[in-house]
């Protein structure tokens, strides 16, 4: 293993250990499809999830969270004010918050909502390639995605991700066969994971929430925390796949593998490379 890989594996292990020790409270304003698997992903990694989205609760609750995850997957007009208010509280308190722009180009309403959220300066944006390409453009394109699923490879979105990072100020992550993470300058690729993860709904939502948990324990290094979270989730997918028979059992084994992940497994599986 080259020394760079050793350093990334050791960073990922350090952050996962911190997460397990600190068990940060992660507020999730997420879609109905994802609530269960997102909460279980966070719990198995060692974080403490809470799916709280009533606008009336935010002044009391959001200041207690170590990070916020906002996911527009089942967006309705009544949810958007809570997403924006929670993001604003986080900004005031310098609490990191992460945006998942599910199906960003599905409609003008959703695209505009994502743009409004982007203007509230998320710490990290994580989407699939089609979502990041859509967000980096000036307007939604009807053929830019197939709902929540990507029609592009992650490598097709490198330039869009860099542009989005530069214009939004966020670290931008594009998931796929190679997970790409950029701050607009550095570009890092995480090659962990298995293709079957795409066949489980809300694995993308889950890794976005895991990114929020990693950023919560390393606020000043959002890019490194994001790369580490993606690699850790991908390694859990690889280990889970050894026991899985299909998507349903992979869902279970991935969560078990994430819970049981140790330093030796990360040292031998983490596959991260600098792309520029
Ligand atoms: N072809 C692939 N090979 C390996 N891992 C993948 C592949 N496609 C997606 N993943 C992994 O699956 C998870 C969800 O990513 P993705 O399917 O791109 O998100 P979304 O569900 O938002 O479309 C990520 O952890 C990603 O690394
Ligand atoms: C299928 C679906 N429809 C609205 S939200 C959602 C879940 C999307 O999850 P992910 O982006 O992680 O695949
Ligand atoms: Mg998604």
From TrEMBL:
The UniProt entry, under InterPro entries, shows:
Hyethyz_kinase, Ribokinase-like
Instruction: Please give the HAMAP family that the UniProt record associates with this protein.
Output: Thz_kinase
Q: Which metal ions or organic cofactors does this protein require, according to UniProt?
A: Mg(2+)
What EC number(s) has UniProt assigned to this enzyme? 2.7.1.50
> Which keywords does the record carry?
ATP-binding, Kinase, Magnesium, Metal-binding, Nucleotide-binding, Thiamine biosynthesis, Transferase
Please state the span of the N-terminal signal peptide per the UniProt entry.
Answer: none
- Any one Gene Ontology BP term: thiamine diphosphate biosynthetic process
What is the protein name for this chain?
A: Hydroxyethylthiazole kinase
Q: Which Pfam families match?
A: HK
So what does this one do?
A: Thiazole kinase involved in thiamine salvage pathway.
Domain of life per record: Eukaryota
Organism listed in the record: Phaseolus vulgaris (Kidney bean)
